[in-house]
Structures are given as C-alpha cells and as structure tokens.
Amino acid sequence: MKPLKNDTYLRALMRQPTDYTPVWMMRQAGRYLPEYKATRAQAGDFMSLCRNAELACEVTLQPLRRFPLDAAILFSDILTIPDAMGLGLYFETGEGPRFERPVTCAADVARIGVPDPEDELGYVMNAVRTIRRELQGEVPLIGFSGSPWTLATYMVEGGSSKAFTKIKKMMYAEPQTLHALLDKLADSVTSYLNAQVAAGAQSLMIFDTWGGVLTPRDYNEFSLQYMAKIVDGLTREADGRRVPVTLFTKNGGQWLEAIAATGCDAVGLDWTINIADAKRRVGDRVALQGNMDPSMLYAPIPRIEQEVAGILEGFGHGPGHVFNLGHGIHLDVDPAHAGAFIESVHRLSRPYHAE
Ligand code: 1CP
After folding, report:
1. What ipTM was assigned to the predicted interfaces of this complex?
2. Binding site per annotation, positions for substrate
3. β-pair partners for 288
4. 67-79 confidence digits (pLDDT tens)
C-alpha cells in the first residue's frame, strides 16, 4: 500500500500541527455534481450504485478530481445495515428511503440478526478496498456508519420522519424493546466499522443525524450510551497509524462535553453552535469538525469567504480543526461555490498555523 501523501486531515483529528486547516464536505459526492448524476443514471437506482464497487469508487473520486479536498469518504449510505437486516430498503423517487418491513414490536426485534460485514455487507467492503487502491495514497479514506439511534428511527418509522412519533411511542411505552433493537444495532455498527478498517478505511465517522430530537436524558440513554459502547469496541490502529473516530450529533451542541467524554477523537458540529464556544468547552480534549451552514454556499463567493474567515477566527490558532459544512451539501449548490469554499479554507487558514 502506498504511503499517504496528504495526511493533514488525520493529523488535525489528532490535534497535531498542520500547515493549513484541512477541509472536506459532508455529502461531497452527490447530486450537485453533474458527473454524479451521469454515473447514477448508468447504475440505475441508488442501491445499485452502492453495490457496484467500480461505480461507487468512481463517484467517491469525482469530487476529488474537481477540488483539492483533504479526505475522501466512502460512497455508500447509513441504511445499508437495516437493509442487511432484511427490512427491504427501497427509494421512492423524490421521497427518500423507505422500508418494506419496518420494525413495529418486540417480535420484529427478536427476528433481527447482526449482519456479517463480509457477507451481507460484503459489497461495502469491496467498495472500500477498491477506493483505497484507486486513491493511491493521495488523501485518507473515511469509513462511516449511522448511530444506532439514527438507524433505529428509519427502521421503526419505515423511512424518513419529521415528528418521530412511532419511535418515540416505542421509547416511552416499550423502552425495553427499543433497547433490544439499539443493542443489536450497536453490535452491528461495531463489526461493520471494524470491517471497514480491515478493508482500508483510515478514519471513521458516526452520523447521529437525529440525536438532537431527544430530551437530554433520553439522548444519553438512547443515543450517546450506544455510541460510547461502539467507540469502546473499535479498532483504533491500522498500518501503524491511529484510526481517528469522529462523532457527529446534529443539533447536539448542548451535549459537547458528554460527547467528548466517550473517548472519540473528534466531535462534529452543525452550524447552530459558535465554534469559539465549542473550542472553549471541549477543545483541549478533542478535535472539532465543522461548521459552516451548508446554505451559505448559495451566497456570492465574497460572502462565503467572509464566513470561512469568521469560523477560522473563531477556532483561532493551533491544531485540531477540520473544516466542514455543518451538514450535507445541498443538491442545488453551484459546484463553483463549493470550489471557492474549499480554496478559501486552505488560503485563509495558513496564518493560523504559522509558528
Ligand atoms: O442519488 C440519490 O438520489 C441518492 C441520494 C443519496 C446519496 C448521494 C442518499 C440517499 N445517500 C447518499 C450518499 C450518502 N449518504 C453518503 C455518501 C458519502 C458522501 O458524503 O459523499 C453518506 C455519508 C450518507 C449518509 C446518510 N444517509 C445520512 C447521514 C448523514 C446526513 O446527511 O445526515 C443519512 C441520514 C442518510 C439517509 C439517506 N440516504 C439517502 C437520503 C436522501 C437520506 C436522507 C433522508 C432523510 O433526510 O431522512
């Protein structure tokens, strides 16, 4: 395996000195890129794209050909685990993900098994191996999973949700059923992420997109506790290097200290928290990833640069910042604005890393 040419992202996650602030974008491969739409059309549907290692590799590399990003992220989806559990994932055009057989009761939970990552999820590991080979050491590859709570919302609601009434009903009326489901998901996520590391992932990220809809008490009991258990069970070294782990709870700004205490290396921030406050609270324990509002990419380029400058100033001098959007890039963003964003992070961050 070729040695890494650009390890800025890994160094920043370990709060080691770098020449500039590394940057990548959540959902950097996707529908805002015309070349993604073309490959997706070639594959047919979204899951066929995920199941085809060559095409999944192609769309992973597309944003890196356009922009000097400091990391690649595996092209896949968080819903591969529930799909491998037999729930029957499909995508309704324009409607997002759906499950044919949602989880409704204790008997449904009892029927679910922990998927074998090299069997039912073998296509994901093939994609990781292919991408790692094709990256040729240019930048590190990020592997990822959804958090148990976030995966459970899709499994119990039967798809995307706004009010989360079905899973909250289960949480309050039958908490032991939900805990049994979250336990199986935690085991599944742990073995899935460890298999991604064995296949070549050099860093891991857990997306807790819906943790922020919980009360503080329930966040601890139904989301954070399971992420902490996963962090405990992860392989933290590969090829003689640390494999850093980033936890991202959207809308989780009020729980930063608790998230940092799980033993993760970095905490992802959405745009509803000031990064200077976040750094003051946890910056001596973990690295921070974030946190520009993805909608800022609709603004004229000088306004984007001004926002980047403000976030860099908020984090201030020294290592430990990975620049990112506070959530995924929107599908109607002009790729030129994404390019200007990335270029401005690199250019404007250098003074913050000078001796
Ligand atoms: O082409 C298409 O029409 C499919 C759109 C799409 C894409 C491009 C989906 C369906 N998933 C993905 C890829 C994806 N999903 C990546 C790829 C890597 C990259 O960042 O470039 C990643 C990391 C994800 C993770 C994901 N999927 C999350 C967590 C992150 C987040 O955005 O909060 C979630 C919640 C999902 C579920 C999902 N899958 C797809 C959609 C449209 C959704 C969101 C549905 C919802 O809002 O509830």
Report:
1. 0.93
2. 27-31, 77, 154, 209, 327
3. 267, 321
4. 999 999 999 999 9
